[in-house]
């Protein structure tokens, strides 16, 4: 919890700069949307909207934890936040499943799918499923995230990592956190960098 974040961010930054400098035109999704638009829609749209919403909730926990905790002080608002986040995570998972099924079942899409695509789909699958698991089995994550993960992340930013915030967290949360760093570290090697 103190080495992996730095390695992942270092790889992310260095490889992003290197890739942009040497292979600028690889910064695209190399979309296969033109190969079969209807299935592409049912994968891409739910995935993108779901992941953006969930990511915004995570970033809110990082940048405005006091606001999140004040919002969560009312049980109904906490419940609405948690249910909405869970619903958007499920929508993200449905989108990812549709994307993967399309890649498997449409021969033209399968042809343009690379090994790095399959790796990133697996990493994203683990990330989404572990996040849903955290929401289902370790509730009120928006509150404990603001009190545990946010201070740990800021300790990393200040180059004074304090792993005491995360060592006592459940194994599923730890899996979610570790996998997030793996996604970040692998990101520059994929077409998802777009």
Describe it.
With 194 residues, the chain is mainly alpha-helical. It has 9 helices and no strands.
Beta-strand percentage range? under 5%
| Uncertain ranges | none
What profile does the largest beta sheet have? none
The helix/strand class is: mainly alpha
Radius of gyration: 18 Å
Shape: globular
The portion of residues assigned to helices is: over 70%
Number of strands: 0
Name the helix and strand elements from N-terminus to C-terminus, one letter apiece.
HHHHHHHHH
Tags for this model:
194 residues, 9 helices, single chain, mainly alpha
Secondary-structure map:
Blueprint: H1 4-22, H2 37-63, H3 65-72, H4 75-105, H5 107-111, H6 115-137, H7 141-157, H8 164-167, H9 171-186
Q: What can be said about this structure in brief?
A:
The protein is mostly helical and 194 residues long. The protein has nine helices and no strands.
